[in-house]
Sequence to fold (679 residues):
Amino acid sequence: MMQPLTHPTSRNQRQGPTRRETLLSFGILCVLVLIALAMFAAQARYDAGAWRALSHETDRADAPDLPSDRVEALEQSSRVAGMTPMSPPEHFGAETLSDKIDGKAELYLPSGFEHLESRRLAMADDPGRWAERFVYDMGGSSGAFAVYSQQRREGAQPMEITPHGYRSANGIFLVQGPFYVEIIGSDTSARLMDKMVAMAEAFVAAHPATATAAAEPDLLPAADRLPDSITLTAANAFGFEGFDQVYAARYQWNGRTAMAYLSRRASAEEAESLADAYIAFLQEFGGQIVAPPPDAPPVRIVEMFDLVQLIFTHNEWLAGVHEAETLADGLLLAERLHRNLSEAAP
Amino acid sequence: MNRPSEHNNTLQDRRAFLRRLACSALGIVGAGALGLAFWDRQGPLPEAARALAAPIPDFSLPEQAGKVALVRGISDRIRGVELAFQALGGLEGFIRPGDHVLLKVNAAFALPPALCATTHPDLVTRVSQLCLQAGADRVWVTDNPINDPASCFALTGIDAAARAAGARVLLPTEDRFAPYTVPGADLIRHWPTLTAPLQRVNKVIGLAPVKDHHRSGASMTLKNWYGLLGGRRNIFHQQIHTIITELAMMIKPTLVILDGTMSMMHNGPTGGSLDDLKPTYTLIAGTDGVAVDAMGAELLERTLDHLPHLRMAEEKGVGTVDYESLKPEVVTI
Fold:
């Protein structure tokens, strides 16, 4: 006689899930509930520090099209004993520079800015103390000097590791080749400053640069010149749109001040034409042409708001004195500057 | 012929099958209903096509209009803001029990507080505490910084300061922005603006440091509202005075506080060196941001000619540069 056929599944359905299956299901549900609770708790307790790793800061971690040797040099120079990375490096180009330094980007962009890398390092034994290193690639040493000189802090302590470098109570600022570097500390402690100096030295060592000093600073008269007052303005010097690459220095004697400046143009014709345009610009804002005294150097003089502007050209050089308080002061400084240029390029 | 037990088994199989079928159908219908509930029929729209945010409320108090207090000779921000509030008649005149207060700080940069490029945490703590003591139900702190928001709030010390006082930071997450148009404005039109925090409060206090600014000449209480803008706001740098004027038109705060105990005289707005700072021992509070900034300009040794946005804001009826006309309460320590 044939036995009745019963499907094994039917038997299982009748019997229902086994105790083991029930316990397993219950366990899985418990885990899901715990995950949900943990997510709710994490959402409710915001911690800015914990968010940092998820922030868009890390989106910029990849260096954009930097040569591998550059990336390696940046990495190598950020390895300083006793300092640990706080966050991944950030990279900014001309389009995004203002995302890092806001309105100050307008100072860097006309000076040839190409790229900024910034990274924060904290002291390994005291993580509350940290420093941020900003490496601005200005495309050339003149651009780097321009932004360095425009922001130089008066009375800061010079540093010997580069021709142009100084330290303030909490920061180090230097030019190395095409780079303008700032290292900003979170406080003024001596231990942190020692580490920051080590960071600066590491950067200079990893980015060797041939000293190619510009000729212009040496042509500015040395007498009565205020210390550390030489600046390079990359664009719009004295508010005049066509005036770029202007070296200037401030002078003081007898309690009065004036500024001498010079800019090397492509040709003598361009220098002359720019001088004409600048004088027209001054006249547009109320400047009055004044005839120079008979024994004066070959300058053109414009009086404006009780101050005197003197402008002259020598070969491809456009030079002058800006905002002298008296005509005699302006003529004295212009004569010194003219003499320097004549001796350098007869 | 089937036996009875066999017949029962078959019936039970059918019932189990039907039960499971019904459960599955319910699951499918439930999942579908859930999906329907979350379905965004429009999908993401271009910024310009998105619905405009509701108008930003007017947070000013008519009875407190034109009040300004100047505290001189102070280096302690906590004491300074307490004296300023006293001179204004007490914070209770501005913050009422049950209020929800938003502190709009300057957390623009991930820099340490010592550099004074951002609102000092001491000020955040004390103002939050005083608001809560005055009966505020909640105090929120927000800004849309230039740098990464989380790093900025952490490294400036503002997040810790807010927590210590019982306030809470609102990060500028994307869902908190909405396109906004300032009536009569040329620049702020359908522009992503941090409006959500403004919609959940009934009082707004601006807290700003006194700073030099490479583009605008100065960054004080009016420029501080720049932190309510989202998107590629750096395009406004070419029309910086116009955008500051429009921001002043956009928001009418309950109170603004300008911290000039230490002013950034050079290399703003980031600074970077303590040498950029000068102790100016002053704290100003008031309801007229134009007047407060006109007073702050003197700390930076700037004139109104250096800061055209102040006169432009006055012309728009936002406030007055003639702060003397408001007869400020002056406290000298």
Notes: Chain B touches chain A through 44 residues (CB under 8 Å). The mean pLDDT of chain B is 93. The first strand of chain B starts at residue 68 and ends at 72.
